Amino acid sequence: MSRLRRESSRQSVITVELIQFIIQYRAQETQEKKKRRLADEDDELSEVQPDAVPPEVREWLASTFTRQMATTRNRSDEKPKFRSVAHAIRAGIFVDRIYRRVSSSTLMQFPPDVVKLLKNLDDWTFDVFALTEAASGQVIKYVAYDLLNRYGAMHKFKIAPGVLEVFLHRVEEGYCRYRNPYHNNLHAVDVMQSMHYCLCNTGLMNWLTDLEIFASLLAALLHDFEHTGTTNNFHVMSGSETALLYNDRAVLENHHVSASFRLMKEDDANILSHLSREEYKELRTLMIDMVLATDMTYHFQQLKIMRNLLTLQEPTIDKSKALSLVLHCCDISHPAKHWDVHHRWTMLLLEEFFRQGDLEKELGLPFSPLCDRKNTLVAESQIGFIDFIVEPSMTIMSDMLEHILAPIAPVIKSKPAPLPEETSSNYDEDQNDEKKRNVCAMTRKSIAGGNTKFTITKPWLTCLTENKRIWKEQAIKDAEACALAAAAEAEAEDKADEKPAAETETESAADEQKETTTEGAADN
Length: 524
Description:
This protein is an all-alpha fold. Helix content is 64%, strand content 2%. The chain has helices at 2-43, 55-65, 83-90, 95-102, 112-118, 128-134, 139-150, 153-156, 161-176, 185-200, 210-222, 232-238, 241-245, 251-263, 277-292, 299-310, 319-331, 339-363, 378-405, 420-423, 433-437, 460-523; strands spanning 442-446, 452-456.
């Protein structure tokens, strides 16, 4: 009996010691996880008025811009896990810090010149043309990789760095396949970077789940994948295989999203392989909605729906509709960027239109609007584009974002002080005026009567006003040049008409002289 008691006592001691050990171990493990998490957080990151524009521009606007079973998860089901990322981005953790860690790990290495230019990735106007020189044309490779890493998508969705590199390389190849002047890899990066600005600098990311942010970035990146450099109307009129496949409806947009998901099913480029079945379905549905909404023929319908929603007393805005509008605005946003960038995009787009016009001429098809090299009003078309398309779109998007974010926005949010490592970096503290204005993107600004209203920073307003002013000046010059050209042409025609008349008079005089001579000879 005594032996049984001793054995039982020993087992009790062992049990108590084991429990104590487990408790200590668990506490230690929890503390280590907390430290690692803190360390990880340090690392992370309708319609056109017909008399307002020339007939040609009106025709282009009308032909281009006139003609949901989403399984989104509630915000309460999966709360955003990227607030530390947002804080890190807004705190000024730029790519040079990432680069130092990346260069010593299995992640992709960034050339120093690329790192320097990516410091401006948070600006509203990002010069992708300067980046393409430093990146040897591989702009998707670096920008998309950096953004997906900043938002923690690689870690969250278990994307292997090697798989992501292969995927981005093939996306870059798809965008460069037709050698388009405008719809190419640079445009893809421009739209993805604009989406990043809207997610981060307005605070929209705080309204979304991790998966919705991932889907938004991918949709922006892939929205014009394998673009042919011709319009939907051209595909329909020419009876292309793509038009036949998609029954003349959103021909290019259907191809972009279909080709993208086919690419992501390839084993060595499948960045979605670790998503659950539910996550994959949700991401796919959202991406399809967003990319199909970039079809310009749905422009006025899209704006009308959102405008009507915002007039309701308590509007409930569907995430798919909201993100679709944001992507559409990013897609047409170059007139809302600084003039030098906007003007360059405009010339590239017109060259793409003109190439389509050349092809239409070869095929015996009528010229699509703005596709005739000899008869296109460039300045007038851009004024109409800004007045009737871009400016109203940006206004409605801004109103929508302010309505969505007002309930979750902080009363005031100032920029945290940069970490010591960033203070000692080569980052230039003397940022331009735009960046200084954008430091506090989410604020409640005072209005008359002491009330407050949540507003987002809108750097595009200044750009739109300035660009429209420049185009109007150019339109006046173009009109004067056309008038001079018309006068010179009329003068040349008058001279051409005078020459046959003078020749006729000379011939008549010669005939009279000949008759006189003949009569004199007969008299003799």
